[in-house]
Design brief:
about 325 residues, two-stranded parallel ribbon, 10 helices, about 20% strand, globular
């Protein structure tokens, strides 16, 4: 099967491409940024361009005869989305509609969608199962929820079958150290903490130390990017086999506080750095972690890697690839 991966040059996208190649899929990447990991992703067809450009995208579909899509291409920073909401609504929603329209035009009816736990906001109960009420706390989260709504209606009206994967906090790097996260455009905790450990920045800030949690800092479910990549391939296979649409929460089922992550980075790197306690950020829930039983039951998927492995692989990547 030939799979188009939008946003395949990005962090989670490139790891998923690597997993698709391991499983002997043919892969086509469309991304607005250049492909940085060419040596680690041999044999892929790469097209640099914007999914908002329907003529460009339609040309890729026609030339490559794509059979299914995994859709990552989106802006993804909750904080930035609160400062620039128009950019997020336009890029994330219009881009998805553009892609789906081109899929219909080319009779492609299978898609795996990169959603997010941000659609739940401050959840009413923990762990978070797929059926709890949605209450996004950021524009980013709202765009992911809207994306799922768009998919639901394209299923009803055009027969596009989808898996929407609501993953929690992706982190880590490939276990062979061939692919990792570009920290130059990230607001995520682990790469930011790595910068401090390497002396690239003088300190890190913990946003909120007065939450109702064991140490006062926010709790998140950190999942290894390789686990997420495996889940995308399993979701694709399940959607193709069942011809049914569904949604899945992807995490480890365990939460860690921000302070626990910071201390783990210090331990793995064997380096100390300054930690500043700052006010809470708009749009940040106090605590959230996943109930992944549905993914385990229906996809045969379960996270394999712990927070220690996440931080060890991230440290190996950043300490050998970042300047």
């Amino acid at each position: 099967m030939k799979v188009l991966v939008t946003g395949g040059a990005g962090y989670i996208g490139s790891h998923t491409v690597q997993e698709l190649l391991k499983q002997n899929y043919e892969v086509v990447i469309v991304d607005i940024i250049d492909l940085q990991h060419r040596d680690a992703l041999p044999g892929v067809s790469f097209y640099q361009g914007d999914i908002l450009d329907k003529d460009f995208l339609n040309g890729v579909f026609q030339k490559e005869r794509v059979e299914a899509v995994i859709h990552f291409a989106a802006l993804k920073a909750p904080g930035e989305s609160m400062r620039e909401p128009a950019k997020y609504f336009y890029n994330n929603i219009t881009g998805t509609v553009s892609l789906l329209d081109v899929m219909i035009h080319n009779d492609v009816r299978t898609i795996v969608f990169s959603s997010s736990c941000a659609i739940f906001g401050n959840p009413q109960r923990l762990p978070v199962s797929e059926d709890i009420p949605f209450s996004p706390e950021s524009v980013y989260g709202e765009t992911k929820l809207m994306g799922e709504t768009v998919l639901k209606w394209f299923d009803k009206t055009a027969g596009i079958k989808y898996s929407a994967l609501r993953y929690f906090n992706a982190a880590g790097a490939s276990l062979d150290n061939s692919i990792g996260e570009d920290w130059s455009h990230t607001e995520n905790l682990i790469p930011i903490t790595m910068k401090a450990a390497m002396g690239v920045t003088p300190s890190i800030s913990i946003f909120g130390s007065d939450y109702n949690t064991p140490d006062g800092t926010a709790i998140r479910d950190y999942i290894h990017v390789v686990d997420l990549a495996v889940a995308h391939v399993k979701a694709l296979e399940h959607t193709v086999q069942t011809r049914a649409s569904s949604t899945y929460n992807l995490g480890t089922g365990k939460g860690n506080t921000v302070r626990e992550v910071v201390e783990a980075v210090k331990a793995v790197s064997n380096r100390d750095f300054k930690v500043i306690e700052a006010p809470r950020r708009l749009g940040d829930p106090a605590a959230i972690w996943a109930d992944c039983s549905k993914a385990e039951r229906e996809l045969g998927w379960k996270a394999q890697y712990s927070l220690d492995t996440i931080i060890q692989s991230a440290w190996k990547w950043h300490s050998t690839h970042s300047s």
